[in-house]
Design goal:
α2 (about 45-55) crosses α10. The protein has one domain: 3-Layer(aba) Sandwich (Rossmann fold). The strands form 2 sheets. Strands 2-1-3-4-8-9 form a 6-stranded parallel sheet, with helices on both faces. Strands 5-6-7 form a 3-stranded antiparallel sheet, with no helix packed on it. By secondary structure, it is of the alpha/beta class. The chain has helices at about 1-15, 45-55, 70-80, 95-100, 125-130, 155-160, 165-175, 210-220, 235, 240-250, and strands at about 30-35, 60, 85-90, 110-115, 140, 145-150, 180, 195-200, 225.
Length: about 250
Amino acid sequence: MKVSLTLVAAASLAALSGIPIAASAAGSVRNVVLVHGAFADGSGWKPVADILRKDGYTISIVQEPETSLADDVTATKRILDRLSGQAVLVGHSYGGAVITEAGDDPHVASLVYVAAFAPDVGEKLGPLTGSMPPAAANSIVPTADGYLLVDPAKFPSDFAADVPLAEARFMAISQVPVNSTSFGTPITSAAWKAKPTFGIVATQDRMINPNLERSMYKRADAKVTEIKGSHAIFLSQPHAVAKVIEEAAHSAG
């Protein structure tokens, strides 16, 4: 009875103070760390971050350099190691490989893959993408110095088909090229084997075959949510993505 009265009192106080009850529930993880994917940067997470902050979460965004998988994991752990308490670690696309390695950090309570790779130990992203029929898009091109980017003319249709065209075009000219060696680097640690895992399938994804996402998430024993949208699902469906992240926070707590 004492516990019930305490919970009722806490809920009443939250309601009176305007603090979201769901986000302030006892035991809920309150930190969320967002990791962007290739050909993007952390600013794309703004719609999701705004929703989560409104719901009472503390948000950190990793601006990994995309110079190597090791550099990107280091950038992620640099953020994690500054946290007070545990976090939900979220990765989009190539960022899924980053959180797979960085997720063994003791600050990580759970993982969320957003239209992302979820590789196993020893796997490389390049061969992994060929393990099923290729993605619908064929617009990734190399640079002279060993990096990869999406053909800007094809970026709106292949990466962000359901994002307003002006915004998608800006993303195309501001994209961050990724070092091609990142796709040939074997994974050395798979955090999803030990951490609660959630996966979002973007059903209209043209950059990663949705069936590959489904296969990797199944192997990781992830709780899967399918959302109709492009590879840029974090921009086109931020409320649906935030809902999964909040579920991961409550589950981890």
